[in-house]
Amino acid sequence: MAIEQLKKRYANHPLGTALQELDKATDINMLHRVYISAKTMVLLLKYQTELTESEAKTLDEYIESRITVFQPGGNQSNYS
User: Fold this and answer.
1) pTM here?
2) How far lies 59's CA from each of 34, 45, 49, 72, in Å?
């Protein structure tokens, strides 16, 4: 399932709110909190079998792609 379909499916769920926050938050502390929340919800929904393995993977990839960290020296890397 495409990320847009998953966003629409979970629009009225805390996961949907977290995904929206990932798109608009700029503060690193807020991004970190939303990242942790979103990753936890994906794991929980997968455990409860509300998400398939491929849906969880799609969401995880999307969440990871939204987080960029500036390391010392100005280098950028993915959060994980």
Assistant:
1) 0.81
2) 13, 11, 15, 29
Q: What is the DSSP string of 22-80?
A: HHH---HHHHHHHHHHHHHHHHHHHHTTSS-HHHHHHHHHHHHHH-EEE-TTS-EEE--
Structure tokens at 25: 């938050």
Hey, what are 79's tokens? 């959060």
Element (H, E) at 69: strand 68-70
47-59 pLDDT tens trace: 999 999 999 999 9
| Structure tokens, 59 | 């969401």
Q: What is the pLDDT of residue 79?
A: 52
